[in-house]
Amino acid sequence: MHILSAVHAKLKHEKKVEKRKKLKAQDTEEKRALELGEEPPPRKIPRTIENTRENDETVCKPDDEKLFAGNDAGKGEREGGGWKGGKGIK
């Protein structure tokens, strides 16, 4: 088991070194482009759940006037609707 952990540590270290080299190359390329007055290469945007989510037109937005025009559902407690207060259930 000791040999496997040593091999794993070596591979992990090599991967870390490669990543560091790649980042350093990107930084030098960006600096060179800035020195020459060129536009630096665009930074990559990671793919996340939020970035890949598509807008759903069935979702109600709170500022949609057409949706809340005919009913009092848009009125909250601060606008006069809802619970009036009191001590609760006796």
From TrEMBL:
Compositional bias segments (type: Basic and acidic residues): 24-35, 50-67
Segments of skewed composition (Basic residues): 9-23
Domain of life from the UniProt record: Eukaryota
Region of interest called Disordered, as start-end residue ranges on this chain: 1-90
Protein name, as recorded: Uncharacterized protein
